[in-house]
Design goal:
By secondary structure, this protein is α/β, with parallel strands linked by helices. It is 39% helix and 20% strand. The structure holds adenosine-5'-diphosphate. Adenosine-5'-diphosphate binds at residues 164-166, 191, 193-194, 223-225, 228-229, 232, 244-245, 248, 251.
Length: 498
């Protein structure tokens, strides 16, 4: 493998500071308890940076700041044109600091620098730019009414939003949450994942540089049950937006039932990727590989159940395995790397446990199937890209979310069998269909119960296209105009005319 390029000096400074502080009311502060935690470089297993560890007391301070910033209105009452400028400037600053952010993301999460630099960072900038466009286009209505009244609606911000994000796309998930929330005039307390807090903290600095008033965005890094839990329970928080596991999503759903705060949940998946024999086979192979190995498979919509029409199942699986076997695996900073390490020791254990479960259920690993302990990788959290055959859709590896570079190839007889098996899951986040028959593509797209359906492509996203789950993959739609519904509420005004 090629030597990794030198780190940007700003990245070295960022990770070498005694510890990274949290952002509350426009100031960078230590936690109330004085505690810190370490974030780890998953390529080496070594400590990367020390970060202030927030808990209930810090959340209390952050919510108070966000409440004051909302109620006193430096953001919600700012002219839309000025808010647009700040969000556009943020997008520009992300782009100007792209290399630094990409290296920081790769160090903290493990993902390849090509993905950080070409996907995560530009998409984060694009999300802020897209939502800047909505600030002054989020209209109310004038309602036809009895002529003795003037009846209209105002689209108003929800208030203080608690946003809890995962570690798989740390900066991009922050952008998906902050872009629409801020565009709509809300204030925010953001809790990044404890595994990957660094780029969210750097983004906080960039938003300040762009001119965001104090208290509008507060960032409290810390652990889920403590910092996240305090945010979910806090009575002065009007809305919780969460992306993460279905298990924690359910807990948040239960916890918020008592206060009826608004909630949107983007949760897990076990997405079917269905390849018909009449597909462009080479494109389908590439799509299946990218659908499951992108970001080491740590993607909620990964195409982990690969249904292949029976008559070409064996041949397709063999080609897939050959490609999987050849995918360059290494440290994320190495530009040759396609598959990096998993994010944490916990993820490594979870994924290797599932590899053992798959084998004990009778599945056969025709590629990978084990941890990668090659020279230079043994201390990191590397799992070889794995292709399982001999899988039935009712096995645990086909029903439970593994969140790693593991695909189960499952044969199907015909279209109705593909739809039946594809829908046989608690989840409903996304699906893929590969066929040259446009009628079949339309039929299957309608029949699969999932929030996103890709035809002859996979893992395609755009800031303007809604994303979210059916069934136990959550509720609410992020991105596009649909996110505005999550972050605004409608006020009806009746005026008596005389
Ligand atoms: P994963 O299992 O992939 O780490 P989680 O759902 O546990 O995913 O984590 C996603 C985010 O939710 C992280 O920011 C995490 O700290 C947070 N979190 C975890 N548990 C809770 C909880 N009980 N309440 C609120 N947030 C939580």
């Amino acid at each position: 493998m090629a030597a990794a390029p030198a780190l940007n000096p700003a990245v070295q400074d960022f990770v070498r500071a005694p510890f990274r502080k949290m952002l509350i009311d426009g100031k960078w502060v230590a936690s109330a308890s004085g505690k810190t935690f370490e974030t780890v470089n998953p390529a080496t297993g070594g400590a990367l940076a020390s970060v202030a560890e927030g808990d209930a007391e810090d959340v209390e301070r952050a919510v108070r700041a966000a409440r004051r910033a909302f109620d006193d209105g430096p953001w919600s009452r700012m002219s839309p044109g000025d808010r647009v400028k700040i969000l556009l400037r943020t997008a520009d600053l992300i782009e100007q600091n792209a290399l630094e952010l990409a290296q920081l993301e790769t160090l903290d999460n493990g993902k390849s620098i090509n993905e950080s630099l070409n996907v995560d960072i530009p998409s984060a900038a694009g999300t802020f730019r897209y939502y800047a466009g909505w600030v002054d286009k989020s209209y109310g209505q004038t309602i036809p009414s009895d002529p003795s009244f003037f009846n209209f609606t105002l689209r108003e911000p929800v208030g203080v939003c608690g946003q809890i994000i995962p570690w798989n796309f740390p900066l991009l998930m922050a952008a998906w949450k902050l872009g629409p929330a801020l565009a709509c005039g809300n204030t925010v307390v953001l809790k990044p994942a404890e595994q990957t807090p660094l780029t969210a903290l750097r983004l906080g600095e960039l938003l300040q540089e762009a001119g965001l008033p104090d208290g509008v965005l507060n960032i409290v890094p810390g652990y889920g049950p403590t910092a996240g839990g305090a945010l979910v329970k806090h009575p002065a928080v009007d809305k919780i937006a969460f992306t993460g596991s279905t298990e924690v999503g359910k807990e948040i759903h239960r916890e918020t039932a008592g206060t009826l705060k608004r909630v949107s949940l983007e949760l897990g998946g076990k997405s079917p990727n269905i390849v018909f024999a009449d597909a462009d086979v080479e494109a389908a192979v590439q799509g299946a590989l990218m659908g499951v190995f992108f970001n080491q498979g740590q993607v909620c919509c990964a195409g982990t159940r690969l249904f292949v029409e029976q008559k070409m199942h064996d041949e397709f699986a063999d080609v897939l395995a050959k490609h999987a076997h050849e995918m360059p695996q290494g440290h994320g900073l190495d530009p040759a790397t396609k598959v990096g390490p998993l994010v944490s020791k916990e993820q490594l254990d979870r994924v290797t446990d599932y590899l053992a479960i798959g084998k004990s259920e009778g599945a056969k690993a025709i590629a990978g199937g084990e941890r990668n302990t090659a020279a230079g990788l043994a201390d990191g959290y590397f799992v070889k890209p794995t292709v399982f055959t001999g899988v039935r859709n009712d096995m645990r590896i086909a029903q439970e979310e593994i969140f790693g570079p593991v695909v189960s190839v499952i044969p199907f007889k015909d279209e109705s069998d593909a739809v039946l098996q594809g829908n046989n899951t608690f989840y409903g986040l996304a699906a893929g269909v590969w066929t040259k028959d446009v009628n079949k593509a339309h039929r299957v797209a309608r029949a699969i119960r999932a929030g996103t359906l890709w035809v002859n492509c996979y893992n395609v996203f755009g800031a303007s296209a809604p994303f979210g789950g059916y069934k136990q993959s959550g509720y609410g739609r992020e991105l596009g105009s649909y996110s505005l519904d999550l972050y605004t509420q409608i006020k009806t005004v009746w005026m008596k005319l005389s």
